[in-house]
Amino acid sequence: MARGGTAQWREPFFLLSPGVAFLVLAFFFPAFQMLVLSFLGKGGLADGLTLEHYRKLVADDFYLGVAWRTFALSIVITASSLVIGFPLAVIMSRAGPGVRRLLIVLIVLPLMTSVVIRTFGWLVILGPGGGLSWALKSLGLIDRQISLMHTEAGIVVAMVQVLLPFLVLTTLGSLNRIPPDLDRAVRTMGAGFFRALWHVTLPLSVPGLVSGSLLVFALSISSFITPSLVGGVRLPVMAGSIYQQVTGSFDWNFAAVLSVTLLAATLALIVPYMMASARMGGRQ
Amino acid sequence: EETLVINSFGGSYEKTHRDLVITPFEEEYGVKVKVITAYSSDTLAQLRAQKDNPQFDVVHFSGGLETTAAAEGLLAPIKPEELTHYDEMYPFAVAGLDKGVGPMYSTAVIGLLYNTEAVPEAPTSWKDLADPAYADHVLLTDAAGNTYGMLGMLMINKVAGGTLDDITPGLDFIKSILPTSTIVAKSPEIQQNFAQGNAWIAPYAQDYAYTLTKAGLPVKFTLPKEGGVIAPITVNLVAGRPNRELALKFIDFSIRAEASRGWAEALRYSPTNRTVELPDDVAAEVTVGEEAAAKLVTFDAETISKNKPEWNEAWTRAIAR
Amino acid sequence: MIGAVPGWVRPLAVLFVIAIAIFMLAPLVVVVASSVSASEFLVFPPRGLSGRWYAEVLQSDAYLSAAWTSLLLALMTVALSLSLGTAAALALARFRIPGRAFISSLFLSPLILPSLIFAIGLLMVFSIYGNGPSLFGLVIGHTVITLPYVIRTVTASLADMDPHLDEAARMMGARWWQRYFLVILPQCRTGMAAGAFFAFNISFDDAVVALFMRAPDVETLPMRIYSTLEFSPDPSVAAVSTIMIAMTAVLVLLLDRIFGLSKIM
Amino acid sequence: MSHLVISAATKTFGAFTALHEIALTAERGDFVALLGPSGCGKSTLLRIIAGLETPDAGTIEIAGRDVTRLAPEKRNVALMFQSYALLPHMTVTENVRFPLRMKGGLPRTDQDEKVEEALGLVQLHDLGGRYPRQLSGGQQQRVALARAIVAEPDVLLLDEPLSNLDARLREDMQVELKRLHQTLGLTTVFVTHDQTEALALADTVVLMNAGRIERKDSPEGIYRNPGTVFAADFIGGANILTITVRRSEHGWSGTLADGTPIPLGDFSGLAPGRHRFMLRKEQVSVSPSDTGLIAISGTLEARNFLGGVTRSAVRAGGQQIIAVGDVTEPLAIGGEVTIGWRREDLVPLAETAAR
Amino acid sequence: MSHLVISAATKTFGAFTALHEIALTAERGDFVALLGPSGCGKSTLLRIIAGLETPDAGTIEIAGRDVTRLAPEKRNVALMFQSYALLPHMTVTENVRFPLRMKGGLPRTDQDEKVEEALGLVQLHDLGGRYPRQLSGGQQQRVALARAIVAEPDVLLLDEPLSNLDARLREDMQVELKRLHQTLGLTTVFVTHDQTEALALADTVVLMNAGRIERKDSPEGIYRNPGTVFAADFIGGANILTITVRRSEHGWSGTLADGTPIPLGDFSGLAPGRHRFMLRKEQVSVSPSDTGLIAISGTLEARNFLGGVTRSAVRAGGQQIIAVGDVTEPLAIGGEVTIGWRREDLVPLAETAAR
Ligand SMILES: Nc1ncnc2c1ncn2[C@@H]1O[C@H](COP(=O)(O)OP(=O)(O)OP(=O)(O)O)[C@@H](O)[C@H]1O
Ligand SMILES: Nc1ncnc2c1ncn2[C@@H]1O[C@H](COP(=O)(O)OP(=O)(O)OP(=O)(O)O)[C@@H](O)[C@H]1O
Ligand SMILES: NCCCCNCCCN
Ligand SMILES: [Mg+2]
Ligand SMILES: [Mg+2]
């Protein structure tokens, strides 16, 4: 948008600079602090920079295992959210206003409930003698008490409940932007319900699915309250290990190493995904 | 108005803390005490992050972190003559002063908690944890994230023949019962597991047994024949703060007999002030007196502090699936 | 449309939605149900029925002051996050700026850095270069973690804005402040409302940054709940949570009234 | 049996009735234009034929088969949307191929050939690789047209197919559409708001008004004898004169609103009284003086050069009368002029369509 | 001094030059139409006058003041956008009042009065309380028009002000716009892609092509003598004949592409050789037999009834020639016909505008 009379850069500059300055000071500076920490010797700056903490990580397949579990869980959580979230978003986008409103409340309410409390709810449901066990038993599907507490499946269940809203809401945003005529048009061209879904609705909701699943992935890979409460101490994940290093082992340098690793791994997955989807989005 | 910044542990603990110490102190000295709710490990983390510019004047630790903090120079040493109530204390409660840590103003005692309905006969030994009768109903607490859990692990290790320099026997014992046990990280989960009938027996603190009883659960504390562990609850002076005098007054105030008795009455923490006299019902639910104290084990705080990171790693690996 | 949805898909969809509803609400139901339990500890199904935990919460200075702190914190966070975020989103959405993609990803990056890591770093910065954590520090921390949400929602709401509106306003003689307050900001008010909603809730609900950025006399509600659970896990935490759920529900309905939910989300 | 039969089709949206008992038939190969003001229900009627809306009452038959309750994808009907409805994630070629893919049964090379052919018809050979957002509005419209015709549907429905083209391209496309129709012989129903386009393209013009069919006739028929005031006004914007008709021994005569007397032809069957008559703009002559035709005098209010012809607005007989034609003599705005027409150019109109 | 003076205005977008050294002047009260194909730079020119784009070179003067570097809000120019740009969060009344509020200095009651008046002009009295989204496209367009005129700007710029209206409303609005212009006497520049509209409304028609002014003249002047092939083709879509011109002792003569001989009038100054000529469609007659005019024979390819007139496409002299007019005799498609015109109807054209 060119403008006569005024310099073009001035308006965006004034709009952007407070935010950028804030981010640099309040976010990148602290984050950088952690990065530096990961290279510092135990004695602080006096010791100079060192790679010893990274060596500890690489030499140790325990933490590689933790990293792998975290990654695998995040991918399963993200995939589950996609599989449940996409049809739900489609149903919401096509429901009448009343049902849609109800579903949005249904989706937003849990999002806004304290994690600690919500996880407590899961403890009750997933635990031995809890609601799930009881329900399955009443249905005759199992004969002894089962517990999803302290299992990977339990983590996935609880995390999906926490993160599903992010996926559904962003996907819904994309779906709402699809002109309804498109679906009708392909119906008149001979496409049935599912083919219209496949050829029109799905490809056109890709931007929402992508940003939603990125969000879910980033939030699940870095969450620790729910995984540690539901998964327990025997299924450590990265963020929990970082917390543990900070507050239990007091090895901040190693905590920083784990943080940097986690971040790098997240970026390694997210950046190509974002670039690929930008290419796809660019086609629309 | 002078102010003092301290930490407390939140919940009913903090409420009692205010009643017994904080509010009376404010009234007596006409000062303001600001409280930050933070558990020991979080407090230490904060102290470390603020090494050059701490916000706390006095910090409370439960479970032994004061030694670590002292070793890192985060605490200021206290001289016996700076505490007017020094002489009223059991020796173990002020032994740390030499090493630069503050006095224990009360203690939690680690023993075994058991479900009185599922287990009519109280367990008598730490080794009972391996008794097949309790299979699938043993509840352990994470030793890396929870200091009571760590002390319990050290006691098991001791009973299994290990030492502070070698915890392999303890870990081996724990590994052997792992398939039939549950490990939790936080105390609310202990409550949850007892309430749902999943837990019958659990190494944990005497005061928490009282919390569970108060909540209506059929839980009792027992001190096994090998004894229990003292989990120190200390009040410490933070280094590098300007108002040392007032902070010392607060610490001295914390270890007075009234306070120590109050902790026992309200939450069943065991007194560290010898002059405390307790009603019988309370006395029955705490570990009190020279004789009882003799049954208690105190692990060397310095060694714990030194070995802690290593133990954490070993423990975490031992239990990880 | 005839056959818009094949006949057999409809009941399946209904079942699916019911299953999701159960899944999403189950933990909340547990919490709400436990809050009316007469028993001393959190238990489900509740034993007995009682409102005493609500009475306890509403009479508890600790809860009330924590709620007040959280409210204050959330409101300040919303104000700061909304000002910074809206301005940045306006610049990013309306101008062809060199490196726009890069700047956008800068603003979204707090999303991918685990807030735990950020919180520790922030605590160090505040302790090394300042007087340690404070309410102000928490506001800063919460603003960082909520900023991406504001940027996203405001940017999304601007996607549908006619770029000529601003020009039209200039043609009609509007000065810059008139353009912003009479033309541009009204266009993104649904985005701002959504951003404010997310920012408010994230701040009100955060337990991670607050865990590290603890300051004297600044106890937030989630921290209060957390510590209560540790030492006296009675149904009062369930009661507090139920109240929070109810407040959120009211907030959601209010937003729906004013802006229409489907536009915002 | 007719190829397309719509019987008593009614469609309501809540309390609003968009279509009132529409009855319409078209033979195989017919080219029907739907004409009418905005909101009169043209698109809704197309959507009912396509199966995108279900009529509340009435039936639709296509090729002898009742399709009223058949899903759109099973009707073999193509609809070109007013909004184009191009798939934004597909190229022009992919868009045009889409109906062929959905129908199935055609090998890829044959599909390519048909797509090429359709793109050729709409003069878009070169743009096959572009995405819709890379096209101008007019180009998008032509892609939509190509996509509608490519699969040779039983019934081709076009909703304002040429509205976004500039005059020149539009003329080209009209010719193309007509030729296409003659070649393929598709039964075609198209919507337009442009009278000239309807008259130029269709075999049959259907004029709709407020959810009803006002008039159905050949282009010339509807133009020459629109029948109702609405139709006369809408088709070609004629002058409408209100004349009080009298019958005397000398024949018929009448007076305009301000009493100006007007001789009339023979309107047997017309009751005496106030009636409305159509007078086409191009049948009115304007001159400085009497010309021997039926003539009244008035004041010239405006002159516009329209290219080829001149449009004059004259105030006469108590109303404004528009004349379109060559006016070679120079006339002064505000000056006195005489307007004239032939007796038979006055066409009587009914107030409303008989229902 | 002229009221609006554009001198040598050039505007580039990256490597693309949207406007090439445009020079244009308009007197106070002039009504100028900008005409030209899509993408030729019409909107860009308006935006430069409005101050929304800064020219890379050249100056803009309004009322004797150089405004080239003046911010748009200080120019007292109103621009009606092609996309209307109505403020969606304000009612119709608030939208129309907006320019008055921004200008300031007018008491609220006077503002109300002016808003009322402007809404009256566009026939939207009743809809003042509605929001833009509650209006049809045509109504929105009229609101935009009302908003543009309400503050009586020095220069009124209209970008396709009537493009979205149906033929009838459009005619009404043209009349209204013309009347408005006469009443307020605003210097007006309006963009249209519709030749008829440009001819009907403007005092001066400016025909643009690829960023340049191709032709500037009065409507009749540009219609009668477009000067270039492009202009002839664009204005009224004339037939373009390529004739090889020869000069003999008997005068001028020529041949069409296929060798058909054509008598010519006197074109002194035309060099012998191939030239292009314009022949207006309405100046071509079609008849079954020779009529005594200049005449060639051909085959009738298509007939269309356009309402009032008939359009005939005839293949003759190696090309298609279109004739528009009354054809009363019945003619068979594919049959032999004779087309004729008057000698003086052939207008010679330059290939490109002189630059
Ligand atoms: N889904 C709907 N709900 C309510 N009213 C509707 C709906 N669809 C159409 N209408 C109404 O039905 C009437 C007919 O609409 P339709 O789209 O058929 O008009 P149209 O003749 O195609 O007009 P245009 O020339 O403007 O496209 C309009 O008044 C419209 O507002
Ligand atoms: N901001 C821009 N960046 C690049 N090219 C532009 C820009 N604005 C306009 N153009 C180009 O400049 C040329 C002139 O555009 P303009 O909008 O003036 O055309 P127009 O004559 O108004 O066309 P239309 O009748 O389709 O509205 C077009 O080719 C267009 O693509
Ligand atoms: N949309 C905002 C929700 C933020 C995620 N909640 C997780 C809880 C953090 N305590
Ligand atoms: Mg329509
Ligand atoms: Mg334009």
Automatic annotation (TrEMBL), chain A:
It holds the Pfam family BPD_transp_1. The keyword Membrane applies. It is a multi-pass membrane protein. Residues 67-275 form the ABC transmembrane type-1 domain. Keywords: Cell membrane, Membrane, Transmembrane, Transmembrane helix, Transport. InterPro entries: MetI-like, MetI-like_sf. The keyword Iron does not apply. CDD domains: TM_PBP2. It is found in: Cell membrane. The chain crosses the membrane at residues 12-32, 66-90, 102-125, 153-175, 196-225, 254-276. Belongs to the binding-protein-dependent transport system permease family. CysTW subfamily. This is Spermidine/putrescine transport system permease protein.
TrEMBL record, chain C:
Coiled coil: none annotated. Residues 67-255 form the ABC transmembrane type-1 domain. Keywords: Cell inner membrane, Cell membrane, Membrane, Transmembrane, Transmembrane helix, Transport. Pfam families: BPD_transp_1 (PF00528). It is found in: Cell inner membrane; Cell membrane. The chain crosses the membrane at residues 12-36, 71-93, 105-129, 135-159, 180-204, 236-255. It is a multi-pass membrane protein. Belongs to the binding-protein-dependent transport system permease family. This is Spermidine/putrescine transport system permease protein.
Automatic annotation (TrEMBL), chains D, E:
It comes from the Bacteria. Transmembrane segments: none annotated. Residues 4-235 form the ABC transporter domain. Keywords: ATP-binding, Nucleotide-binding, Transport. Coiled coil: none annotated. InterPro entries: AAA+_ATPase (IPR003593), ABC_SmlMolc_Importer (IPR050093), ABC_transporter-like_ATP-bd (IPR003439), ABC_transporter-like_CS (IPR017871), Mo/tungstate-bd_C_term_dom (IPR008995), P-loop_NTPase (IPR027417), Transp-assoc_OB_typ2 (IPR013611). Belongs to the ABC transporter superfamily. This is ABC-type Fe3+/spermidine/putrescine transport system ATPase subunit. It comes from Rhodobium gokarnense.
